Structures are given as structure tokens and as C-alpha cells.
Amino acid sequence: xxxxxxxxxxxxxxxxxxxxxxxxxxxxxxxxxxxxxxxxxxxxxxxxxxxxxxxxxxxxxxxxxxxxxxxxxxxxxxxxxxxxxxxxxxxxxxxxxxxxxxxxxxxxxxxxxxxxxxxxxxxxxxxxxxxxxxxxxxxxxxxxxxxxxxxxxxxxxxxxxxxxxxxxxxxxxxxxxxxxxxxxxxxxxxxxxxxxxxxxxxxxxxxxxxxxxxxxxxxxxxxxxxxxxxxxxxxxxxxxxxxxxxxxxxxxxxxxxxxxxxxxxxxxxxxxxxxxxxxxxxxxxxxxxxxxxxxxxxxxxxxxxxxxxxxxxxxxxxxxxxxxxxxxxxxxxxxxxxxxxxxxxxxxxxxxxxxxxxxxxxxxxxxxxxxxxxxxxxxxxxxxxxxxxxxxxxxxxxxxxxxxxxxxxxxxxxxxxxxxxxxxxxxxxxxxxxxxxxxxxxxxxxxxxxxxxxxxxxxxxxxxxxxxxx
Length: 470
Ligand SMILES: [Zn+2]
Fold this sequence. Notes:
By secondary structure, the protein is α/β, with parallel strands linked by helices. It contains 17 helices and 14 strands. The protein has helices at 20-33, 55-65, 77-80, 84-96, 115-136, 138-145, 172-185, 190-200, 205-208, 220-227, 258-278, 307-312, 324-342, 345-355, 358-387, 393-437, 443-449, and strands at residues 2-10, 37-46, 71-74, 100-103, 158-160, 166-168, 236-238, 246-248, 286-288, 295-298, 303-306, 321-323, 450-455, 461-465. The strands form five sheets. Strands 2-1-3-4 form a four-stranded parallel β-sheet, sandwiched between helices. A three-stranded mixed β-sheet has the order 9-13-14. α5 crosses α16 (393-437). The protein starts with a strand and ends in a 5-residue tail after the last strand. The structure holds zinc ion. Zinc ion is lined by residues 288, 290-291, 293, 306, 308-309, 317, 319-320.
């Protein structure tokens, strides 16, 4: 077994303990004990928190592609890559070259992990970071509830007069907004409206906003956005992209009357539905197992049918046919089976916790607790000094006051960390539970996990997963 070792050397004070020489001799012994063969030690130098040059890692990956060694040994995944996500991707690449990857500290061994686990971990890490950014939006949400406009750009047709107040712009943009609504109500489509605005050369939203990469071209998408923006009837809608929409009524002067607006919404919705119906969850990945042609969705039956059979008749293919909800249930239950067979729930939670570094928080809590103990000692010592008449009561009280202040700050800090920590733990468990329950599947998840589905005449369903290696 030819073994490549990857080490990261830090210029940090703290990390000097594990200097390069120390690390090297450690790995050498480790390899010797197992009667493996050391191929080469690759190294990168890290300063502060960032690794500027990653020549070592790149060389390692390059040599791996040339099959110069059979396995990679390193301290931990986090030592190997900038984050676990990146690590997983690199490990996956090594794996495709049939190179084993092992870490000593966290006991990771790529031979024990299959592709499914990788795919799953990647999608979980992504979900987790999405939830994090939701939290960041919280501050914005609080401000939105008070009815202040907190977008950076004022909607087209309005102008800002001070930090919190917005009024109709009284210029060409106000005219354009009214024109867009009235044209749409007269039965013109988005394309026609865009064309008319382009012909007239009216300033576009990005031009008015003074964006650097502004375009003079009106697009259908921006017109659609305007038509569905409640801001024009005087309401403030914030947090549009999230589930919790907040509408504060009458925060500013309207440009469009409510009747017009509601009628426009009704029509937009009707048009939207038609577009939505044409794309289906399994469209594009479904194949007739009998003849290999792609399957078509039949709206009236709520089912998929072999394309060949559908177009050319029974003579050409005896055909596959399956109801969408049946297919959905089958895919879900098969995925669920794989998940339950392959993954232990607890170890998955642990793995994710490591990913989001809950350990760090626990370490912090420990440090604060220690500090609080120290403060307690300080208090006792001050009391001793008072009793021994080394200090007088005035100095004693002053000292105590100072210590108490510090204690309060630290305790508050600790409570906050614990709160954050519990919340995050809850999220992780929630996400993992979602995965294990899996009673429905959405397009995003489906695309990530499923490559192709074959359906046969006898209704047999064969799934090819993205994480399957042929
Ligand atoms: Zn067919």
C-alpha cells in the first residue's frame, strides 16, 4: 500500500506544537506500524485562518490522478480541506481514482463511506447553510414588521425623501408604471408590453436605480415583478422570498388602485398556472423500460405514458404507463429504504454536528465556566484580604463590584451561546428527521438523487441514482 500523507503547517503560535517535523514522524510511525509504504509527504503552509497557497494539495490531487499512490492519510478532514464540504468533494474524486482516504483524528475511512452518504452529506450541508442565512434575515424581518422600507432600492415609480419615507416620483417612471398596468388590463401580454416600452425608450428599473451593469432593455420578468408588487397599492410587503410574508397596509401613497391591482393578479395567476402544468416532477428522467423512449405526461390521466406508444400506437411498443402519485410513492419508499439501510441516524447527526462545529461552542462554554470559577476564587481571596485587614472595606466593595460586573457579562454571554447551540442542534435533528421520514420528494431533491427512472409494462420501476457507481 503506497501511502501519501498530507499535512498543513501553520504559522500560528498555537499550532506550533504540531510542527512539521512532529507531524511527519507521527505519520511515519503510523505507516510503519501497519507495514505500509510512505510514498510522499505533501504540505501546505497556512497563515492565520486562511491557506493562501495550496500547491501541496494540488500536487497531491495531480499525483493521485496519475495513480502514484493507493491511499491518502491526513490528520482530519478539516485539516485536509477548507471545509467538510470541499473535503467530501475531493475525497469523492480520490475515490473515483480508487484511492482510499483516511483521517487519523476523526477516524474517517472512505472505504466505509459509500457515494450515497457523500451525496446526502453534501445536500444536508447545503440545507443547513440555507437555514443559517434565514436567521440572518431575521433582523431585516423585525424592521419590516415596523413598516419601514428596508430594501436598498426604492421601487420603480417612487422616490425616497428621507430614511423612512417614500413618495410617488412625479416623473416619467410614475407614468410608465400606470402604463404597464393599463396595457396589461387591456389584454396585452408581457412580451408586447416590453416591446412597447423598448420602442419608446423608457428608462428601465436598473437604469433608474443607477446600477453599474444597468441595461436599457425591458424584460418580461421585470414587468411581471412590477405587476405583482403590492407596493403600488400603498402596502408594504417585506420578506417576499420567505414563507412569512409581512404586509403592512397604507404605509405610503398608492400609484395603482386596488381594483385594478386585484384584477391584474387574477390574470397573472391564470397565466402562471398554464405554464406550471406543462412541467412535471418526473419529466425528463422517465424512460420506457420496453423501448427506451422518454415518457410523456398525460394531463387528463395524471399519468406518464411511453412516448412511442403515445405517438405511434401499440404496434411499436407495448408500452409503459404509470400514475404520477404511484410513481412518487414508489420512488419515496425506495429512497427511504436505502437511507434506513445505509445510515445510522445518530451517527449522521454527529457527522453534521461536526460539520457545523458545535464542538466549538461547547469548548467556548467550558472556557467561560472556568473563567467564572476563577472569578469566584477572586471573590474569596478578596474576602480573605479584608479579614486579614490587608485591604479596607471600601477597596473590598470596589473589587467585588468589578468582579460581579465581569461575572454578569460572562454569564450573559454563556446563555447566548447555549441558546444558539440548542437551536442549531434542534435544526440538525429536524433536518435529519426529515430525511428519515421522507414522505414526499421535491424537484430539487429528486434531481440531486435520481438520474433516471425506467418504467416497464408490468409497472416495475427501476431507479438509477446519481450516487451509484457503475
Ligand atoms: Zn415504450
